[in-house]
Amino acid sequence: MKYLYILLIFIPVTLVGKFMGFSDPLLFVCSSLAIIPLAGVMGKSTDDIACFCGQKIGGLLNATFGNATELIIAFVAMKAGMFDVVKASLAGSVIGNILLVLGLSMLTGGLKYKTQTFNKNSINITSSMLLLAVLGLSIPAIFTHAFPESSLTTEYEGLSVIIALLMLLVYVMQFVFTFVTHRNLYEESLPDEEEGHKASLPRAIILLIASTVCIALLSEVFVSTVEPMAESAGLHKTFVGIILVPIIGNAAEHSSAIIMAVKNKMNAAIEIALGSSLQIILFVIPVLTLLSLLFTPMSIVFTPFELVAVTGSVLIANRVASDGESNWLEGLQLVTVYVMIGAAFFFV
């Protein structure tokens, strides 16, 4: 994780390159390399702040800022009217977290330990919530296919808003379930309050604010170079959105999950992967949908292949989490499916 901070040097490089007129592909690479460590700083600062707030508020902070990088990048892209890239990046985040992050965690952890166990009860609840979330995403898409003459971005945009509000309601109720009514189910997977008190609270708050501002600035550069970079590299913007953008925004989180798995802390690794995916669907997508009303309304309608890929990933997650155990072969299977999906989008 610490090695990622070396990439912070690309923050001034990107800003200087923007003013000096670097080519779009070069700016894309520089801004990507700058965002990766900033996401790590943001995540670490959030964890440090959470240590001073107790489990309930700490858990809320971790969940709220867990996907802040993706939310900022997606918001900037949405303002630019790049709805296809936004939706592809959000679908890619869900697919990447479940298949790539969880897969690599199980693979690396399984190579060190023959079998790893985790809290089956709490993980199964998260997996069930993912199924509900995917159903919410599916309804608008099914609606448009059943009534092709309709348009959710005009007279039927109300359906997207209703579903977004209901998703946010379920998201909030999840915290009541986790930290109030059924807290005992999550005792093994809640963070240790003994860890992380070495950090200074004011320092953590300053770093969180600074990293958020830097990511917002760099996201403007990053988003503006996505389409030109894709054209110059001969890549479809959907592939860039569903594969490259999520990997960049989630790199720090990905490394954290893998490190946890190597330490035989599979509860934490799986919660990072599945919890992040759940937050993307129940929080980030609805928030972006509601914010889009201030600009050009964005519907919650994904392409059929994006929807199939997300649904398939969630079904696999439910299957893997059902027995409370994992091994390297299951991890390899998840990573293989991710590569297959990535290859399919590459040839779009």
Q: What labels would you give this structure?
A:
two-stranded antiparallel ribbon; 1% strand; mainly alpha; 348 residues; 2 strands; 12 helices; globular
Spell out the blueprint of helices and strands.
Layout: H1 10-20, H2 24-51, H3 54-65, H4 68-79, H5 83-112, E1 116-117, H6 120-146, H7 157-181, H8 201-233, H9 237-262, H10 266-291, H11 304-321, E2 325-326, H12 328-346
Helix pairs in contact: 1-2, 2-3, 2-8, 2-9, 4-5, 4-8, 5-9, 5-10, 5-11, 5-12, 6-7, 6-10, 6-11, 7-10, 9-10
Describe this structure in words.
By secondary structure, the protein is mainly α. The protein contains 12 helices and 2 strands, in the order αααααβααααααβα. α4 packs antiparallel against α5.
Short account of what is shown:
With 348 residues, this protein is mainly alpha-helical.
Distance between the termini: 34 Å
**Alpha carbon gyration radius:** 19 Å
Provide the low-confidence segments as ranges: 151-155, 189-196
Biggest beta sheet attributes: 2 strands, antiparallel
